[in-house]
Structures are given as C-alpha cells and as structure tokens.
Amino acid sequence: MVSFFDLPRSIREEIYRHALVKARVFVRPFISMEYMLHPDRAKIYDNPNIALLCASHRIYHEAKPIYLGENIFSIVQVDMLAAARMENRRVAKNLRQIRRLELIFDNRDYKYMAESLGTEIPTVMTEVEDWADESSAKKVAMRDLGEMRDHFDIRQRKQLNHHLHQHKNDNKETPHDRLTENLKKYLWGRTLTFVRQTFRLTHLFIDLRHCTCPVGCCRLADQVLDWGWVYVWIHGLPDEVQVRGSSRSEKEVIARSLDRQSFHFKLKIDEVYDQSRAQDYRGLMQYNVLLRSVYRKLNENITAG
Ligand SMILES: [Zn+2]
C-alpha cells in the first residue's frame, strides 16, 4: 500500500504549509479590532487546520516547525499566554520556535480589553476568594485584582467620560492620564515585556495606524517601543522590523529605541529592567502563578463540561 510518507519530504512539507500557514494566526482570546472589524476577515484570515498536527506523531514532528516557524502570530494581550506558558512546558517550548510576530498598537483594543476585564475581574476575584489557603500570594493577588477592578470599573469610566478632554491644570492626575497610564501598564507595556522576554524573532511587524491614547487625542507611536519593564530583548533583537502607519520621525525614534534594547553583559541592571517596577514584577509573577491555577480550573471546567 502506498502511504502519505512515500511522498518526498519536500512535497509533504508543501502540504503542511498549505494546511497550516495562513495570512495571520491570532493568539486568542483577544483578536485585534483591526481584524475584528475587517469585512472580509473570514475569507482573508482563514484558520490553520490544527487538527492535522494530531493526525500522527510523525506528522506532528514534521509539521509543527513549519506551523510555528513560518506563520505570523498576531498578539494583542499576553496574560492568558503567560499563564499557559507557566502551566505547560510544551507551550513554553513552542513559543521559543515562533519567528514571526505582529504587534498591533491600537487604542480600540484597549477599549475592548477594558470592557471585558471590567466584567471578568469580579468573577476571577470570587474564584480566588474561595480558595482555602491564606498564602501571601493570595493576598497580593486579591489586592492586585482589586486595584485592576477599580481601574477598569465601567460605571466609573462612564461617569468620567465627559471630563476626558480636560488637560492637566494642577498636579492631579486627570482621567485622560489615568486611562493612558492603564493602557501602558495593562496592555502595551505588558505585551512588550512578555515579547522581549520570550521570543527570538526573525521578523517583527508593528502596526501603528491607531496608536493613540484611549481618547484618541494624543499620538503615542514615538513612545510605544520604550514601554514595558524589561527593556532589552533577552534572546536578541528581531532581525527585521517592519513598521506600518507611522511618520518618518516616529520611525526614527522607534529605530533609536530598538538600538538601545539589545542585550549585552555590560548593561547596568537599570538598563535591563525598570527597578521601580521590580516590586510590580514580583507581584506579577505571583499573579501569573494565580492565573495559572485559574487557567487550569477553566480548562478542567471546559473538559468536564
Ligand atoms: Zn490624548
């Protein structure tokens, strides 16, 4: 009998490519609004046929490097990915094989994330509160989640809405600044920290067409690459960076930022990461441990249901 494996390896690889390499692979649960709102999304951004990877061990081993190494993965929000990486060694190993990444810095994604976090956080807090152990990790997590709940409180944001255009008149933080700070802290900064810690990329695609503050009045494209609390690319800078939707002067600032972000051993510690956020970072690790458990519980529920 003739088997699939009688085909030459190069033909098999073409078949794998056809099934698994698509215009973009979206890292769920968040997909950028840029794609969500695209009228031809389903047609252009067809899903890869992941089931192929489960067909046999041999196909898995031959096809997985193609799936991970040749696709462009589009990441918006990293929390679930960070939790999955801690939960599962295979996820960590797979992430290291990704070579092409797209980051879209789009204020619409922040609004979407804030809405969904605003509704999710109270549920997660109830989940955490129910746990028997009274560890310090639990206390830290409850404190952090409480802080996040307040930051993403929808009712509060709606009340503040008509003050949004106010600019700084004294030293008090305006709602506009609060939102911009949230965006940096919870979305773009966190994403960049994770990306710099995790990946060794050949290609990085950056989309800055909607890179503004959440209100839309300030352009942030020239600052975005400086955010995060790990400043350097631990596994090396991307070989090639393509930037879309930015002016020439923004591109120049981005190029200079990236130049400063290559890791070498002579760096001082505060050039590697933001020390004022070191405390935050330990908190984040504990928060990640916690998310891992939430992730595990959610998975159990999905499997059981
Ligand atoms: Zn603004």
TrEMBL record:
InterPro entries per the UniProt record, alphabetical: AN11006-like
Name of the protein in question: Uncharacterized protein
Organism encoding this protein: Aspergillus ruber (strain CBS 135680)
